[in-house]
Amino acid sequence: MSPALRLIAALGVILSVTASSLAADTTADPSSLTAAAASAYHAGIDKLANSPAAAKADFESSIAAYRALILGQGIESGPLWYNLGNAYMMSGDVGRAIAAYLRAQRLMPASQSLSTNLADARARVPSAAAPAAREPAWASTASFTRIVPTAWQVYTFLACFALFWAVLILRMVGVRGRLTSVPASALAVISLVAFASLALQTAADARDRRAVIISPTEGLPSPGAVATSEESVSLPAGSELQATARVGEWTQVRLGDGRQMWVPSQRVEMVLDRPS
Asked: Rounded to two decimals, what is the model's pTM?
């Protein structure tokens, strides 16, 4: 076997092992959980008109199955967060629905159905005493680097980077063949584009402090302060904020008008954090 073919074979083994390890299932069968979640959700839809209580139980079963996939098995994807958001929405949990939709939006920013459902969820949040703090413009721009799945970008970068150096080395030692005919400049450009996209995602995540109130609470001027009508702010479930600090069981949030308030940490979820 020629050196070029051996190199290609080695790269294929490395990428295959990497993909297998990332996709490895450590507990139950994901396809069974996905089917159970979808089945419970559609059963709830069918029962909603005639038996709201039974429908709610089905939606909660769907939520449990999707959470088992995402939190129990560590399988994260835009569609899974989107479906979890839909199940939360149908169960009446608007706060957690918005949090799930925002997590889905990070992974599938071009989805029109997701944008529609997120807008509908936001419309159901009661008017708060302060405007919501929404995603900054730079974060919206960065999110579009995720139209191509991050895993594909990683594989593309690694493959093109490795092939770029392989082509250069083989050319330097005088090997000629199909591999060495690949334009090294094209491999370099693709590697740089993929790297820049991944770097932008990392920088955006480092600055992303978005948070969502998941159950109604009062924003207080200091941790544990006694709420008064003059100092406190009513924050309904679904309120979108920026989290700025955490002290013990309290989280400091910034409202859309710039005010800083404190809320119990169990009442708020960071978009980038896994929900409890």
From this structure: 0.73
